[in-house]
Amino acid sequence: MTTTAPGAAGPGAARPAAPDGAPAGSVPPGSSPWQLARRELRRRPAVRVSLCVVLLFVLMAATAPWLGALGGWSPEEFDKSAIDPYLGGQPLGSLGGISPEHWLGVEPVTGRDLFARVVHGAQVSLLIAFAATAIVVVTGTAAGIAAGYFGGRTDAVLSRLMDLTMSFPSLIFMIAMLSVAKDVNRIVLMTAVIGVFGWPGVARVVRGQTFSLKHREYVDAARVGGASAWRILTREVLPGVSGPVIAYTTLLIPGMISTEAALSYLGVGVRPPTPSWGQMIAESVAYYETDPMYFVIPSLFLFLAVLAFTLLGDALRDILDPRGGQT
């Protein structure tokens, strides 16, 4: 008869959780996707920086009215004393008029405060990006789960709808739709138009995941136990596809930000005086030789936002959907 010393683990005892500095493969059994994501994000300094930048942009967008008031200017307020009327309205001072009164300088000709316009532009860009992403993810997840679980005619109809939507010249339709729409809320219209054309990508990912999940033992057990289709989809299948959906969602956001900026740059997006990064970049092209800071500042904010969300999305995809990153 063998004995086990007090405190020693027996042959069938569970192993203790690995410390934070343990190798990548030593993951506590039964870890949820969020626990795994938090563990791996702590191990990657570049991703931690990206996460901090993302949170900073979200906080800036959420507090844009208070930040603008803190700077002392509204995004539509003109400051004629900050520009030189004898030089075509060029900002007074160096670096585009950066001063204690105007932290990021001013616009040429109008003298509007760039800090106020940039933070309000972040609110517009992120609001459209998040709202459009929510439409895409909800619609795509619902369609993908339905197609993958029910199969047959449901799968055939939804798959053909996905193919039709993906083959449609979405950018041309967006430009045409936004050009002819006049007396409408531009933010709502842009959100709806961008969201309508993005869901098939999510639906295809979820459809493939659902195909692999619907014949798992726990799903069959729930079906044999008399669970309804709705309960199986929401309690058994949906948690199984949540990892890839979360990763795909984070990767969608930078694309949505870029799309909004591109449409505003082309003049069919957000209309003045509502500020937008793409609109500011378009207006700054005429002044990039005489006032380069007017071009650099909104471009830098757009670049940092897209880069931070992209790096964070790549990391979440590698963690939550490693096979998806290899295809």
Jot down its keywords:
elongated, 12 helices, 327 residues, two-stranded antiparallel ribbon, 2 strands, disordered N terminus, 1% strand, mainly alpha
The helix-and-strand class reads mainly alpha
- Could you give the distance between the termini? 53 Å
Number of distinct beta strands: 2
Helix count equals 12
Q: What share of residues are in beta strands?
A: under 5%
Q: Which value, in Å, is the CA radius of gyration?
A: 25 Å
Described by strand count, sense and barrel closure, the largest sheet is:
2 strands, antiparallel
* Shape field: elongated
Average pLDDT, all residues: 82
User: Reading side by side through the largest sheet, how are the strands ordered?
Assistant: 1-2
Order of helices and strands: HHHEEHHHHHHHHH
The helix fraction, in percent, is: 55-70%
Unreliable residue stretches: 1-27
Short description:
64% of the residues lie in helices and 1% in strands. The protein has twelve helices and two strands, in the order αααββααααααααα. Strands 1-2 form a two-stranded antiparallel ribbon.
Write the layout of secondary structure elements.
Blueprint: H1 33-42, H2 45-62, H3 64-71, E1 83-84, E2 90-91, H4 114-150, H5 152-167, H6 170-180, H7 186-196, H8 199-213, H9 217-224, H10 229-265, H11 277-284, H12 292-320
Q: Would you write up a description of this structure?
A:
The chain has 327 residues and is mainly α. Helices cover 64% and strands 1% of the residues. Strands 1-2 form a two-stranded antiparallel ribbon. Helix 2 packs across helix 4. The longest helix is centred in the middle third of the chain and has 37 residues, at 114-150. The model is unreliable at 1-27 (pLDDT under 50).
